[in-house]
Each structure stands twice: as structure tokens, then as C-alpha cells.
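User: Here's a chain of 492 residues. Predict its fold as C-alpha cells.
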Amino acid sequence: DISAPLQIHLIPNEDPDLAPTGGIAGKLSDKEKFMTTLELLTGLDAPEQKDGYLLYQALGGADGSEPQIAIGSDFFFAGGADKPSDREPTIDNFMTADGSDSLFKSNQSFASFSSENHDLSIWFGGNSILETLGSQLDNASLDTLKGGSGTISLNFENGELITQMKVDAPNNEMVYGKGSFSDGILKFAPADAILALGFALDLQKFVEIAEKEIIPEFGDDIKLNEPMPELGGLSIRDAIGAFKGEFLVSLTDIKMPGPGSMGGIPGGPPMDLPGGGDNPFGDPDMEGAAPALPLPGGPGGFPGGPPPGGMNPGGMNPGGMMMAAMPKPEFIVAASIDTEKWLKLKAAPPLAMGLGLAMMQGISITEKDDFLLIASKDHIESTQSGSVKNPVSGSGKELFTKNDFVLKINVAPILKMDLPIPPGGPMEMLKDISHLEVVSNSGKSTGSGTMKLVFNDKSKNSLLQILKIAKAINTIVPAGMNGLDGMDEEFE
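Assistant: Prediction complete.
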């Protein structure tokens, strides 16, 4: 009867240098039927009567490492240990426990976890795991994690696959996020974005970690408080302080190049027509052609170039043609800033040069209402007006107001693009998916992270749809190309 969940137990020894013991326990709806089936399938003899339970011989013999199965009043336990001699004593300890010192009674986190229902779930207790890890890792300082615990769960709902991790940290040293995004930055988050990626971080906490854990490794070479010419006279600490911790990137479109984007190669005039001649790229007015650069060695050109008639007889600009043939993403990036510090940092030569190159490519860079806004052509108006035309709202906005990390990918807009995705398996898989959400909240010592894969068909269990995708992937990968093929032979 698989309606009751199986439990997997990992139990540390009192001596942390010894390997943990444990096993699998499961509820039995019909003990006699289970025992009869077990004996028929494995050929085991009748079990030995112990103190309140039955114990079968070890599956691989007394000296083997295989598990040994015990039968309680209405449950079974398949136990194991690192050493065969330790196996039976640990099984006896499990089977005769009266629960007086159980984890359920002593740990509120585990008690709460036990009352939850999930398709697959894992609970881990900080102290037990840390003591075991600490004994195996040299010079590992895990004291800041002691007293914490966490859970990992996986659920196959109708139309949704949901994976979640919750961590109860023992102190605020593990708190890195702000807990939510501000209304100000969400004015620059389009509701119809193909991809949205955002962070709302406590940057000061990261500076403290760097001071404590990273910078000492470099000796005196890095000084956070010393002004640097490369940073416009600001110190590293002030440069970091130019940002307040909120970052949001939204991708709204990817415009594919047209047929004439390569200077007329696919759609240009034939070679024997007027204007074609020996050099179909020579006409700078040709539709889609990139502007011609000055000839090397000519007026306004690069000194020392080849003579006329060399590699660039018609003034063709290969770099410009390559840029014209590239997909054009439409995006808007917003970051919360301390405007006064940012303007000083912006004037630093390396950063000023990089921003200048971006602006030459048609990218807008604006400071408004203590936000740095970087936008492509479609969103320049939004940077001036102070908001995109369709900012997130409702449940889409809640994704940001209840978390400090957000990644969301909408599949439907991707399918509408003229992307070079071959028909068949990959396209069919994408058509089944609505969107992917990955969010987390680390604004408190009790943090959480969730990944949600949402399908278009809400009537089907997501496990069935995941298996369908796995089957499609298996048919796409050519025979012999799967990275798992032959892995067992390589290990041998």
C-alpha cells in the first residue's frame, strides 16, 4: 500500500568520526501479505523473533553490506550500517525506540514538517549534519549555521511542478535580501516581459562578508576606504555605495534581422544588373546596407592602410554588417542608486568609456528619481516618463513584492518570434509550457526559495507532462551522444 509515504532515515553516530546509519521505513496495510511476498521474491527464511519485532537475515548474508529487514506491528524497516557488525544493533535501536526522546518531540521544525503533505520532501537538521560535515572537512568553520534547519519539497500538481526550499537560519548573519522590491523600481517592470530578472539585496551585508572572509586573503593589496583614480576618486566602499541594492532586468522582444541585413546578399540585385557590377556592396544607399567606413589610408581613414583597390574597395563596413545581422534585443534595466555617488562614479574614465560605447549603439542611459535606467530603443520613452506603459500588477506584481529574487520566463512570446528553433521535439515541448518562475525571499532568518514550472494544460498532472518532456528529449539526443552512455564502463 503506497498511499502512506516511505520514510528515509539518516542517523548520525554518537562518534561523529563514524559513518551515519539509517534505512527506509514504511507503513504496512497488510503485514502478512508483505512478509509472504518478501519471502517469495527474495528466498528468505522465516524471520527471527526479537524484542517486539521480527528480523529477517541480511539479504547478502551476515558479512555482506546489504540491508536487513525488520517487521514491526504495522511497519517495516530496511536498515543498514557502514560495518555489518553495526547493522543489527542499529536496527534494534530503531525498532525498540519508545519515542520518549524522539526528534518529533524535541524539534519543533521537524514536528511542523511532519504535518505537511508533499510528493517528495526532505528535512535536514543543522546540528546533526554540521557535526558530521565538520568532522570530514579540514578547517571548516560551520558554527554560524548551528541550530538551523531546513526542508526541501517537490510536488506534482495539476498543471504545475513546484519545488520549494525553506531554511530556518540560526541568526541574521544568513540574511542577505531586502524581502521585496520597491514600488519605484516596479514601474520599470513590463507585465509582458519575455524574461524578468531581479535582485533586491542588502549590499552592506555583502561588503561585511568580503571584509571578513575574502579581502584578508589578499593582504593589504585591497583597501575598501582608499580613494582610487580609476573610480573617479571614490573608494571601493563608496563605489559599491552608489548602488542601493535593487536591480531589475526586463527583456521584452528580440527582433531578428531582415533579409537585407547582410548588405543585400540574399535580396540584393543580380551581379549582371545595373548597380550590381563587380561589387554589389559598393552602393551605400542599398536597402539594409551598413554605412561605409572611410577607406584605410584615405581621408578620415586609418593611417597605414592598404592602397585603393585593396581589401575594402567599395567602402564596405564588415563590422557594421555583422552588427546589422545580429538579433536586436529590446530591454530595460533599472537599478536603485545614490545619485550623487553614481554621477561621480559615472565620470570615472573606464566607466565613462563603456557607457559612451553603449550610447553609440543607440542605448539610452538615464538617471531619474534615484534610479539608473538603461534602455534600448523601444523603452527610451519609458525612461523619460518614469514608467513603462504596462507595469506589472496583480499576481504578477506580488511575485516581486513578496520576494527579493525573481526570475520569470514566459514561453508564449518566445514562440511568436522568428527564432531559429527547428520544428519537432523542441518546439512541441515549449508549446506545452506557460512559464517558469524562480523566486526566493531571504529578508528574514526564515527564508524560502521556490521554482514553479507552469504548463498550459491545467487538467493534467505535471508528472505526466514532465515524463512527456523527458521522452521527447530522449528522442532528440542522437544515439551515443547521451553523456550518460557508457558511464559505467568509464568508471570501471
